[in-house]
Every structure is written in structure tokens, then in C-alpha cells.
Amino acid sequence: MAGRFDPLTRTAVRGGRTSVPAPTAAGAVTTGARAREWAPGRGVDLGLTLGPLRRGPGDPTFRTTPDGSVWKTSRTPQGPATLRVALSPRTGTAHAEAWGPGAEWMLDGLPALLGEGDDPAAFVPRHRLVHASHRRRPGLRLTRTGLVLESLIPTVLEQKVTTDEAYRAWRRLVCQYGEPAPGPGNGLPQGLYVMPDARTWALIPSWDWHKAGVDAKRSAAIIRSARVANRLEEAAAMELPQAAARLEAVPGIGPWTSAETLQRSNGAADAVTTGDLHLPGIIGYALAGNRDADDAEMLELLAPYAGQRHRAARLVLLAGHVPPRRAPKMRKTDIGKL
């Protein structure tokens, strides 16, 4: 449900909502594409399910088009790939096309990407606000990409800066060091890129990190992660505690970064984000009227949702019940101009 009853606020975007136009038609298979159809068996909202994979409105790896399609690029174990997915307006069947060396890998992972491994029935709302948010969004599914570095790098870029700064850095680095997305020629959305491979991330010179507005601490964490990319990618098949430990073994990767990554790569329903500047206050205000809640109180409020704490936090964010602002926004900076 969208529109004036579900406004696309910044908090809703933080909750993983992306505006996807209503589907007009599933579309025919494009020449040169590999294709697949998959019937979810239950309603899926593309904007809610795939929204967390979008890093800002200008993300060069993610696009939506007026026909209701979502376009996403990835660097798979088989190589770069572009995926287009749309839902049939009549049956809800997912129609997907893919291009590039990693096309088959992307199509094989389509069900997981659309939440096949997610179990919404395991979630039981314990608060009135959470219940209302859950009831209004029956198509929310937790996506699972199976790709760790794809989510880890933009998450590191978001450490201790505004989202606008992080999105700008992601756009610049992907467009400069990535490669144009494979696709159907004129039918491909303009400006779509595949992120660089691990070796390229590790070889980005210090001055280009600086020009992108990325300080030495964040760039060093990304370089260290890229050097052990194969080991980190193994975390996509691990249980949450083991996966988090694998990521946090890399200096510069803490609980905040590992949780935000595994929510996307592993579809981890219980990967609650701690160490966040705003989330404890939002959860505390929405569920207990305490805008000054810390991580400990947030975890206590989410304790009834054990096993589903990430989903509960997302539903709170999507409800948009946030405390009134009482301080200026975090100041934007651009070290690239220094």
C-alpha cells in the first residue's frame, strides 16, 4: 500500500522502502537475455523486498523503470550480471531476465532474492504499532542476495557519515572503477554499472578515496575486506553468529557493519543493528515513548521478537513514528574538497 497513506519519508527509506511504479506488464523476453519465471505463492512487494539493496536515488547498480521493473546489477562468482525483474499485475508471478556471464547465477538466486527463504509466519507482533505496520505491508519479504562484499562495501562507506555523503562516494567509485552493465542495448536504463571486483577495490589509490570523500579509516577497512573477499563471501552460507564473527574479524568491521551487511546478504531476520546513532531513539520512542533510549533499552524492547528482531525494527521504521527533531541535522562534509 503506497500513496498518501504511506508516504515515502526518509525514515521509510531507512526501513528499506523504494518506490516502484505499479506493473503494467511483465514484459517479453528480450533478445539475448536468459529468462526465468517464478511464482512466489504469496504476495511480494518489490519496493519493500528489494528496497534495502538500493543505496540512494542515484545508485548506479539499481534502477526502477515506469513499467514496474526493478533492474539490479551484481558481480557474481561467475562474473558481472544485470537482472531485470517484474511482477505480473494479474498473477503476481515474477518474470526475470538476466544478461552477462553471471546471468544464470542471478536467475538461480531469484527465489532467495524475492524472499523464498523468509518465513513471515514466524513473526508475531507484540505492540500495536508493529501490528498495524505489519498488517499494512503483507508483501514485505526479507531478501537474500548471497553476496557479502556487495553489501559490505557500501555499508562501510556509511560508517559515521550522513547517508548523502555515503551515497555520493558509492556512486563515484562504482562509476569510476566499475564497468558498464551488460544488457539489452537500448533497453538498458541509462547509467547502470556493475561494482568493481575485489582486486580493483584493493588497488584504488589513496587520492581517489580522498576525492570520493572517504577517509583513511573507511578506505582501509574496505581494502582489508577486499583482500580477504573469498573468506568473507563464505559467510553467506553461515548461521548468523558465525557469519558475524567472520566479518568482524576484519579490523574496521564492527557489529553495526556486520548486521547491516548480513541483513541483505543472508536475509538474517534477527540481525538487529546496534551502535546506530538514530535507531535506538526511534525504537524507544515508537514502542515506549523514550526518545533517549540506548542500545540496551532497544534490545530489551525487541526481546519479544527474538529471531525476528530485524523485521520488527524495519516495521517500526516503516511506520514512520519518529520523535520530533530537536537538533540540527548532522553536518555534511566533503573531504574531497580539502
Task: Give the number of DSSP strands.
Answer: 7
Instruction: Quickly count the helices.
Output: 16
> Rg to the nearest angstrom?
19 Å
| Overall pLDDT score | 93
Low-pLDDT parts are: none
Largest sheet: 5 strands, antiparallel
Distance between the termini: 45 Å
- How much helicity do the residues have? 25-40%
Strand proportion = 5-15%
Order of helices and strands: HEHEEEEHHHHHEEHHHHHHHHH
Report the principal-axis shape.
globular
Strand order of the largest sheet: 1-5-4-3-2
Structural class: alpha+beta
Give a description of the structure.
With 338 residues, the chain is of the alpha+beta class. The chain is 39% helix and 10% strand. The chain has 16 helices and seven strands. Strands 1-5-4-3-2 form a five-stranded antiparallel beta sheet. Strands 6-7 form a two-stranded antiparallel sheet. Helix 5 (128-136) crosses helix 16 (309-319), helix 6 (148-157) packs antiparallel against helix 10 (216-227) and helix 14 crosses helix 15. The protein starts with 9 loop residues before the first helix and ends in a 19-residue tail after the last helix. The mean pLDDT is 93.
